[in-house]
Amino acid sequence: MRKIIHIDMDAFYASVEQRDDPSLAGRPVAVGGGGPRGVVAAASYEARAFGVRSAMPGFKARRLCPELIFVRARFEAYKEASRQIRAIFHSYADLVEPLSLDEAFLDVTEPKQGGPLATDIAKAIKAEIRATTGLTASAGVSFNKFLAKIASALRKPDGLSVIRPDQAAGFIDALPIERFFGIGPATARRMHAQGILTGADLRRRSEAELVRSFGRSGAFYHRMVRGEDGREVRPDRPSKSIGAERTFESNVAAVPAMLERLRPIAIKVAERMATGASFGRTVTLKIKHHDFTINTRQTTRPWPVQDATELLDVADWLLRHPAPPARAVRLLGLSVSNFARAPGGQLTLGLEPPAGRR
Ligand SMILES: [Mg+2]
User: Fold this and answer.
1) Is 293 helix (H, G, I), strand (E, B) or coil?
2) Ligand 1 mean position to 204 CA, how many Å?
């Protein structure tokens, strides 16, 4: 049986900002832009208490929390903290799989230090992260990636949760469906509509039933709810493309609405590009229509896409050429490939970064 730890930094970008500017400590902070085109990339826990969430338009965040302080993203600072935490991870395990700048799976079945108990190792890693970076992390410990990932989210911030094999079934049964790793908000709503509210509800559905309702993902859900996740922790590998996609709760018919939906997707992809310092020249737009037909549009530029704004501009063009989608769409995705190194290494989210705070 494997021992997996999932480590997730708490409100990472916002915590780095609060660490580096003590006047922000204990206050609602959003990293990102507060103007008409701005988007929240990260929110401090004080801001989350008002309902501010990442990927939310800046004006909406400001409406929820008038005291909200917007700060511009400083990717160099986040990357530096990320380098520090990765060095810590690698001192405990060879098998480290980063999911983003602030999150990784570690396979500690045969750890390099810290003793035989994964819980002790998780505690030691958390303490070392705090001592080195001044930041807190939450850890989840279990025997597979799915459960370790869910465990790390149970007690945030500064949490440590363990799901042992004999606890897995009871734990999954009680878990609200929207907390499952791999079930997004749109799928969760469809499950709710079918009376699937918890893991126990999901477990009662046959594989055939789930595949009928959710396609290939149905088989994945069927395995997950039984705690069956054989996926290995894969050490950092250079990927050929970086992308993200979203399924919408209702179909989207107008181009401006589609662009609005593409904005958080572009941010996610830009973050992933920044994480790997991989900037691609080829942009692919994936469109799934309401009848499930899939269409992709692609363009290659002479220089790499640098940030979310450039990515959105390319997506805008792809959406309109040769013509806007003739039918309503239920999913949009963006991916970038054909990587090149970024000139100058300046990494920004690019979405209307304010000059200082606003
Ligand atoms: Mg995090």
Assistant:
1) coil
2) 32
- Superfamily for 1-163? Reverse transcriptase/Diguanylate cyclase domain (3.30.70.270)
pLDDT in tens, 26-41: 999 999 877 777 888 8
The pLDDT tens digits for 266-287 are 988 988 887 776 788 889 999 9
The Cα 257–Cα 245 span in angstroms is 15
CA diameter of the chain: 60
Q: What is the pTM of this model?
A: 0.70
Of 22-31, 137-146, 219-228, least confident by mean pLDDT is: 219-228
172-224 homologous superfamily: 5' to 3' exonuclease, C-terminal subdomain (1.10.150.20)
Helices marked H in the chain: 12-20, 45-48, 58-64, 75-92, 118-133, 145-152, 165-174, 185-193, 199-203, 207-214, 216-224, 255-276, 308-320
In angstroms, what is the span from residue 119 Cα to ligand 1's centroid?
20
In the reported structure, the alpha carbon of residue 327 is separated from the centroid of ligand 1 by a whole-number distance in angstroms of 37
Which amino acids are annotated catalytic? 103
Q: How far does residue 286's CA lie from ligand 1's centre (Å)?
A: 27
The span from the CA of 89 to the CA of 91, in Å, is 5
Three-state SS for 130?
A: helix
Angstrom distance (rounded) from CA 152 to CA 181: 11
Separation of 326 CA from ligand 1 center, angstroms?
Answer: 38
